[in-house]
Here is the input.
Amino acid sequence: MDKGDVNMLPVLEARDLGINFGGLMAVNGFNMAIGRTEIAGLIGPNGAGKTTVFNLLTKVYQPTHGTILLDGRDTQNMNTVQINKAGIARTFQNIRLFSNLSVEDNVKLGMHNHIHYGMWNGILRLPAYWKGEKQAHEKAMELLSIFDMESLAGKQAGSLPYGAQRRLEIVRALATKPLLLLLDEPAAGMNPSETAELMDNIVKIRDTFQIAIMLIEHDMNLVMGICEKISVLNFGKVIANGNPSEIRNNPQVIEAYLGKKREG
Amino acid sequence: MIVLKKSTRKNLTTYALVIVAYIIVQLLISGGNISSSLQGQLVPICAYVILAISLNLTVGILGELSLGHAGFMSIGAFAGVVACISLEQIIPITILRLIVSLIVGAFFAGVAGFLIGIPVLRLKGDYLAIVTLAFGEIIKNIINILYVGLDKAGLHVSFLSDANALNLGDGGRVIIDGPLGITGIPKLSTFTIGFVLILITLFIVLNLIDSRSGRAIMALRDNRIAAESVGIHITKYKLMAFVTSAALAGAAGTLFAMNYSTIIASKFGFNTSILILVFVVLGGLGNIRGSIIAATLLTILPELLRQFNSYRMLLYAIVLILIMLATNNDAFKSHLQALKERLLPAKFRKEKGGTENG
Amino acid sequence: MLKVDNINVFYGAIHAIKGISLEVNEGEIVTLIGANGAGKSTVLKTISGLLRTKTGGINFLGKDITSTAPHKIVERGLAHVPEGRRIFLQMTVQENLEMGAYTCPSGGIEAELEKIYALFPRLLERRKQVAGTLSGGEQQMLAIGRALMSKPKLLMLDEPSMGLAPILVEQIFTIIQEMNKAGTTVLLVEQNAQMALSIADRAYVLETGSISISGTGRELAESDEIRKAYLGG
Amino acid sequence: MTFLSFLISGLSLGSVYAIIALGYTMVYGIAKMLNFAHGDVIMVGAYVCFFATTRGNLHPVFGVLLAMVVCTILGVVIERLAYKPLRAATSLAVLITAIGVSYFLQNSALLLWSSNPKVFTSVVGNASLKLFDGQLTISVIAIVTIVACLIIMAALTWFTGKTKMGKAMRACSEDKGAAQLMGINVNFTISVTFAIGSALAAIAGVLLCSAYPTLMPTTGSMPGIKAFTAAVLGGIGSIPGAMIGGILLGVIEIFGKGYISTQLSDAIVFSVLILTLLIKPTGLLGKKINEKV
Amino acid sequence: GGTEKPPAETPNAGGKEPAATAFKIGGTGPLTGGAAIYGNAAKNGAQIAVEEINALGGIQFELKYEDDEHDAEKAVNAYNKLKDWGVQMTLGSVTSTPGVATSAEMFNDRIFALTPSASAPAVTEGKDNVYQMCFADPNQGSASAQYIADKKLGTKIAVIYKNDDVYSKGIYNTFVSKAKELNLAIVSTTTFTEDSQTDFSVQLADAKKNGADLIFLPMYYTPASLILQQAKSMDYSPKYFGVDGMDGILTLENFDTSLAEGVMLLTPFSADATDERTVNFVKKYQELFKETPNQFAADGYDVVYAYKKAIETAGITPDMKAADICEKLVQVFPTISVDGLTGEKMTWAKTGEVSKTPKGMVIEKGTYVGMD
Ligand SMILES: Nc1ncnc2c1ncn2[C@@H]1O[C@H](COP(=O)(O)OP(=O)(O)OP(=O)(O)O)[C@@H](O)[C@H]1O
Ligand SMILES: Nc1ncnc2c1ncn2[C@@H]1O[C@H](COP(=O)(O)OP(=O)(O)OP(=O)(O)O)[C@@H](O)[C@H]1O
Ligand SMILES: [Mg+2]
Ligand SMILES: [Mg+2]
Here is the structure.
């Protein structure tokens, strides 16, 4: 954790968060606070409710109970769009790109609320349009360069290899200028060497943009390698909190999640 | 050498195509080398091209199936013609009056698009489609019971009864006479006006697509949930596409109506909506240039088939089926692709990928 | 048992598979590894008949299946857990499993269901849930369970460990080995090359549509080249 | 009493819509395509039955059977020639092809059987039940249609829910590729779907024309569109939904005419449709499918 | 029975090239689609007349009909096609809305038109070169009201009309105003549309509830046949009064003519008439087209004979330009008198309106019987 974080308000705080799917408490009494520039991990067995936590934080689902404070503000009445504007961006477990659009357009869509010209400026090609698009283009290239993807800018997003699509989703989320970035299984479908590269990049993103990152991942190398703080979820409840070495040796976690004989 | 963006290059080709077509037709007309049959179709072709482009905005770019596009066309047609007839004294210059009428037509259709869009766009997929169909039918039904007349006191409007209920003063004129529609429409539309209107439509639609707003609209189509997650206001952009599409259809409706001395509401029913949809699908979803070509060819086709007399519509049906099979069957398409590769040197070959914008 | 001979597969104009030949013998576990987009999934799809090869042939259980319809191939004893799971999202978990046994006579389904539920207790819990609302990992279990329902002779798995918790990954690999011992031949595509190689009898490495290296699992696991490229150093 | 007689008219008109909607839903729910040619298959069925009974002097029962056979073959042939090559294409492409097929059938009928309308003889005669001293009449054909509708609905529900073929159909409707991997013969399954849908179209055609006896090449198109609307109103793919949607549509149409205005009847029907969908965006019995994020 | 079996499109009696020796006449009409019966009938009727006249060896006609699908836009296309072919005078359009559109074009192009059946007043309004062979809609409406009042056919009248149809609504409008003038009591007015012309129970219930003893049906015979049938099944048996569109109801294949027993209509033509001209025409029509002709066919037939008469009177020759022919016809048409299937001594006003006396007919035992 960065030294600066300690005395600051956490960027996100979830208190007693829960949701009920027709009798199934997918998430129950979930508490968590994330520092301004922290990389946090959320792990747990399949179906534990990790993705659901992300969906609650981004208001894809309305929590049945609990409070979410984003930057100190209660998000009770916000919808997904407002949540994004307020500072949370995310990627999805099942990739959700604008697959018929170009890579560059995907990133520009991430910047949508930071490009300032309206419909008529666009149709009539007024100066605001040219200025806005020029800036957007430069910024998009800059963001793509994080993953060395500038050369792919003109390609159709859906035609990229799986790993590149995952990376593009991260770039798109970053383009919304979030305070907190939620990554849902960013390394899924990547081979170990690609994963290693991704780990470097996640840390680099945090360092350059000074934002908080929370990620869900089943790849323990990644989680243990870069997360400063890990929460473990099982049956919708947090069963453990702590730093990587604490989690790695927590018998409950081993029992429910890691398994006895570990790879790697 | 200036390197143009691929979409810009495509758009320019589209404009060029339209302009060249216009010039060729004008040359043919001035040389007297054009049949009355083709010449008579020039204005409706322009109207259908605009309708196809505008519907492509909804179906291809926004990704929502609309089965009631002719409804907007009819609102534009009736509103535009009423404006034109009412303004006969006030604006004597016909070209100016036509332009005002086109704007009125577009405006009313746009307003209808807005009013209809708010509730409708909450629905998805086929449910949305059926509701647009329903609105198209409702519009038709309402115009069938609408009576509008003009006298010195201004416009009179009445529903449900008949033209007498308008209580027109002396010298008053019934404009919309319920199911009898409008008769005695001045024939103001010309090919040149239609051509200019196509260019304006292209300018609006192509520029819209290739801008911040257009990107947002396409994002909704590709993935609604992701679009929300990056902060794109769904309803706003759906409405933007829907209203623009409706307004352009309205202008096309006025253009169309002002080419015939009469229009009736039943003309703008489900079948016409479907016809426009056929243009869009045949030309390729999201492919504006395709819409232009498909609308033109499919409008001319039934006329070309006249020599087959009573087998005409049967042949039309067969041709339509065959074209659909040919353009959508993978096996066929890959043959076509292979052929293209053999014929075209590599550097002229289009790159694959990117949406088809123009 | 399975013999793929010099196949070439195209997506439109894209030449995705360039003359690949491979073999899977009865009782083996064979794995296909390779980078993203190398064409692993395409090979599997071509074998199960979802895609067609332009040239060459595929032989399964002594019969040429190059142009046999997919459902016929399945009837002959092949099961394919496709990439992206492809479960029936609007059916319940149990209905999905029953679909897996579509080619089997309806009698033995109950016993088979029980076996699957024993392997994946989670699925038993969620028996009546609509599959579309399952978590990613639960869907993956369902996809594997569904394929097992048909008691296949050859099981083809496309990245079965994707999205699964470590403990489950282990379980899945154990299941694969057990199934194999019980007589099922396995063709496995994996990103998790290390684990895949550790259980495989033989392996093929795919690189942009062609096979670059092949050998026994152990040979490849120990090769420096492979270590660098696929095992993360 | 007026209310009751309107209700009965509504039910009998509605049950005709319903029976068409059932066939529509079959194809629509499973092949996931809007088969706009369905209405025209209905027309063909009615013509076949007409010629069989009037010119061929066949007993109505055989007329209906013959119509079913002809329509089944027609449906399967159409599917093979026009829709099967488009399995991989977008559903809109298939929709447009279906429109082409619809034009084709209408114009073939025009050439074969001329544009002159024919008057269909009801297959069950024109008898009717008279209640309350003749104040209320219920025609036999209305009763037959409603009963047929219920039977068909029950049979279809059983078939798609319980039989192996039915399950295969559901699988195909969701994911054709995955269905193939289960060992399902997708092409055959879809052919069976079309066969059933078209056989139902024949029955619908005969009942439609028995109740409203004018038969022309365009006879099927408007009821076809209304039935499609009904199928959506009931919830796409839902068999009981199609029936309820059809009956509701008929009842609303008659009540709208009877109690509000005959001039506005179309607008009323469609307004009710819109309102219903706004309140229940997936139709009356449609399942709400929440996309898992 | 097909519509398209007959020999050639343009019969040529002499077997020689018609070139400048034959007049090119053409018309547009719905030959496909829902209104195809009307277009085909008019076309077939005209064709019989052309064959007859050509066989006489004097004036020769070449006839061409183009499909307009009962749509104004298609009708203008069809008309332009006729222009390209070199049409010299036209039979306008068969139905009203297309007729309004094409007649405006023909007015501009100075090509003469005599439409068999496009009856809306807007077809001829303000166009000196467009004439009608049929009654204009207003005439039918007011004549019907007059007839009903004169003969005291009904005390309480119900009207059912087709709300999205120019023909039906046009007749309805004048019927109502004339009825008011004559103090006829209209107790029920209901409508239907193209999209809802299957079920008439509500309309009939309304008429019955209000005690109507006569129902006026300004519509074509197809929906009318359904009304008759449904009224019967409701045990409602008022008198019916129809207009010329009702003619043809008896020729409906497989129609139970007893349903139409007592139906009255004003029509200029009946296929059951016993005069030689009609008998001859009906016989030929049945031979050629395997159907009984309706009034559209008769109107189409009469148009060609009217042209023959006008050409003879004005001394027009086939080598003349369409515009010149037009001017001559405009002068001559108001002066001639023609005998035809749909009327004896038909004459035309300068406005293009025909003057002929409609015959009141009543259907008895499956045939039309004159009411007077
Ligand atoms: N919309 C829903 N309706 C019903 N149940 C749901 C819904 N969404 C999720 N669930 C259930 O809630 C539980 C938690 O799901 P979630 O997707 O959050 O799991 P997860 O922790 O992300 O698992 P994985 O690692 O497999 O992705 C699962 O058992 C799932 O079946
Ligand atoms: N439907 C498709 N259309 C066009 N190209 C495709 C399609 N599917 C795959 N490809 C291309 O074919 C190649 C092989 O793809 P394939 O999915 O078989 O790779 P893979 O080895 O399974 O990769 P991954 O690890 O990402 O699953 C890739 O270059 C991919 O971009
Ligand atoms: Mg998850
Ligand atoms: Mg793959």
Chains C and E do not touch (no CB pair under 8 Å). Residues 5 and 21 of chain C are 4 Å apart (CA to CA). Residues A 159, 161-162; C 11, 14, 16, 34, 36-42, 83 surround adenosine-5'-triphosphate (ligand 2) (CB under 6 Å).
